Structures are given as C-alpha cells and as structure tokens.
Amino acid sequence: MSAAHIIARSEHTLSRSQISENALKVLYRLKNAGFEAYLVGGSVRDLLLGRKPKDFDVATDATPEQVRQLFRNCRLIGRRFRLAHVHFGPEIIEVATFRGQHQGEQGDERQIVNGMIVRDNVYGTLEEDAWRRDFRVNSLYYNIRDFSVVDLVGGMEDLRQRVLRLIGDPETRYREDPVRMLRAIRFAAKLDFELAPETAAPLHELGHLLEGVPPARLFEEMLKLFMSGHGVKTLKLMREFRLCSYLFPQTEECLEHDHDSVFAHFIERVLENTDQRIAEDKPVTPMFLLASFLWQPVQQLRARFIDRGMSKSQALMAAADSVLSGQAQRVAVPRRFQTAVKEVWQMQDRLENRQPKRSLRLVQHPRFRAGYDFLLLRSQVGDADPGLAHWWDALYHASESERDKLVESLGQGKRPRRRRRRRAKKSD
Ligand code: ATP
Ligand code: MG
User: Fold this and answer.
1) How many angstroms separate the alpha carbon of residue 116 from the centre of ligand 2?
2) What pTM value is reported for the model?
3) Ligand with an atom nearest the CA of residue 134
4) Domain 296-411 annotated CATH 3.40.50.300
5) Is 169 one of the catalytic residues?
6) What are the helix (H) ranges across 201-311?
7) Which of 34, 170, 316, 424 has its CA 20 to 30 A from that of 327?
8) What are 287-312's pLDDT values in tens digits?
C-alpha cells in the first residue's frame, strides 16, 4: 500500500477514546491473533466528521470461520454477504472479510444476474475491498495496528468538500445494487452533503431498478430512510429524484394530485414529529409512518367503496386490506405492523364519533395513544377538529371523577351533532 494513501495518527482527528469498547476488543483480538483489523464505513466517516456513529463495523482478512473461532459470542449471518456478528449484550459488532473482484475457487461465490450482484463471497485484500464499497466517504479504514487512516479512493477529500460520490462508474454501480440509490439519498439527508453531479444524474433515470429489489430488503432500507432522524429531508429528496413512487406508489400518486396540500402537510408533520422524537431519544414505530403514508390512499378508496353501497366500517376494512396488500408488494410490511396500522385507522372513526360509555373504554385500548397521536397530527393540518383532539387529551389525563363529567357532557348515550357537544362542554 502506498504511503500516499496513509494518513498518520498525527494527521487526523479520529481517536480511540471515541470508539466503543466492544469494537476495540474485537479489533485488538483480531490483531493479536495475527490478522489485519480495521474500523471501516460509517463509523470512520462519522467520527472524522465529529458525529456520533450509529454502529461500528470492522473489516479484516480473517475469514468468517476464523472470526468465529476467536469469539464465543459470534454468529455467522447472510447468504448474499457472509458476515460475522459479534454480540455484546445489545451491541453487535459486524465483522466483514475483505471482498475481492476475482472469481472464487468454486466459481459460484460471486453471482451477477442482469448486472445485479446477487451473491458476493469472494475474499480479497484491503485494496480490493476499498473499491467495491459504495461511496468514497464510506471507504476509509482506521488501522488498529498504528491508528492511521487508509484512504485509497479519495474519501478524505470528499469529507472536506462535504460531497457524496460513488466509487467507479455510477450507472454500473447502481445496476449492481439499486439500493445504492436509496443509500445516496439517505446519506445526503443525514450528513447534509451534496450529491456529486455524476452520482446524482442517473438517479432520475434508474429508479425502476428498485422494482427488482426484494421487498424484504426494501422494508429494512425504508426503516433506515425514515427512522434515522432526517425523514423530512429524505422524503423531499426521494420525491425530487422520483424514487418515492417505487417504495410508496399509492402515496406518491396522492401527493401528485394533492391540490389543497393537506396530505403533504400531514406527512410532513408526521415526519417532523418522528425526527424530533428521535432527536429526543424517544421511541418511534414504523407502524405510525405507514399509517400516515397510506392514510390518504385508504381514505380515497374507502370513499369509492361507500359510493358502491358499503357501510363506513366495511368500506374501511376493505380499503385497508387492498391498500396494505398493494403496499406489501413493494415493501414487505410485517403482519404485526399491518394489523396495528388498521387499528390506528379504525380508531379514527371511534375518536370522531364520541359515545359516552365507549369513550371510557377507548382510552384503555392498547392502541389509544397511537390513535390519539394520529388524530392530533391530523388536526394540526386541518384534517380533523382540533377541539376533538383536546377533548380526548383531557379525558386521557383526567381523574376518574373528571372523566365522568367529560363523558356526561356528551349527553345520555345519544349522539348529538358536534357543534352542540362543544357548547355543552363549555357550559360545564
Ligand atoms: P450507517 O451510519 O447507516 O451505519 P454505514 O455507512 O455504516 O452507515 P452500513 O449499511 O452500516 O452503512 O454499511 C457499512 C459499510 O459497508 C458502508 O459504509 C459501505 O462501505 C459498505 N456498504 C454497505 N452497503 C453497501 C452497498 N450496498 N454497496 C457497497 N458497499 C456497501
Ligand atoms: Mg454502519
């Protein structure tokens, strides 16, 4: 390796004290067993930018089997890419063996179908490994032997310029793995980097390649796109580069015809809210995002079913099934989330048609909180009555006697019209 590519410890800012203890343990044990061991990828990139890494990935010349022999707490995973996961309680250190370009001894270790890499288990050297990574800023290696950073592809230069640039010919790299298009958007949003022009240009044309990506992988990627704290910017970029229709075709269709912008505002509020919760370390769930992204599609289909003579609740269930199964063809949404999404939608009707006895039961419902949060966000964009959201909030926080009063204000089991109900509440 040429010295020109090695940045000595005194020339960079990445310090061992910023690396997780478990990652250090893995690096040292590999080194002490005579293997090469580097921190690589997002953790090196983020530390050099002064950001806190999400996780720590290690690259080594040890094979997955050799890694397993060094760590008791190790599991080998993946078929497409065979990797070792070293477990330390909740923290997992991912250890990948250097990948090479040449054909494997058995000949079937690297498989390319229609330009797409479907299997890549040919091992190689660090030099080879560096060139098959996606972006230049993701291909920096921190060497545990002398604490230097190895930069074979120009990643340091891109970090300085705050630009995201694919390694190699962009179109070929996107065809090899179309998920790199989503990764480009995700990192641009997360790091607040510009996409290099030649990295950005093919995005407009190649979105359709995402149709060849297994829906289960797109679900994983969707979580990273919208649940990493930069959802608002991510959606903006996804739409700008015309990629949204490949993950959320029904949502994109509604957004394109959203003349009063209520739906666009609603989704933006939901993403703002999610981003803020993540910034505050509060829990978030993909169920809520899915319920929001598909809210307008389900409402529109429901209206059509009602026109055809279905009852309101029948129409909701039929529309929900249709919209969710359409969505699952693109992004595999696990069943439990689909069920929860339906419950949040059903809850909207129950929250809007308040009935005395049922109201008290509803606040005990396990999905009440999510349903109420959903109603609140709807009310903030003019899609629901803000007074309604306040009333439920009051009921939720009320003591038992206060609850009875609030419920009595609804009348004796009759369903008064909304205007009368509100007047009644004020005179309490
Ligand atoms: P994050 O902060 O989201 O963890 P990351 O850059 O670490 O970002 P990972 O998905 O954890 O992303 O991947 C680790 C590294 O593996 C990347 O930095 C990159 O070098 C390489 N990599 C991951 N996915 C791909 C891909 N689809 N094509 C090429 N290289 C990839
Ligand atoms: Mg990572």
Assistant:
1) 22
2) 0.90
3) 1
4) no
5) no
6) 203-206, 215-226, 231-240, 244-247, 249-256, 262-279, 286-293, 295-307
7) 170
8) 999 999 999 999 999 999 999 999 99
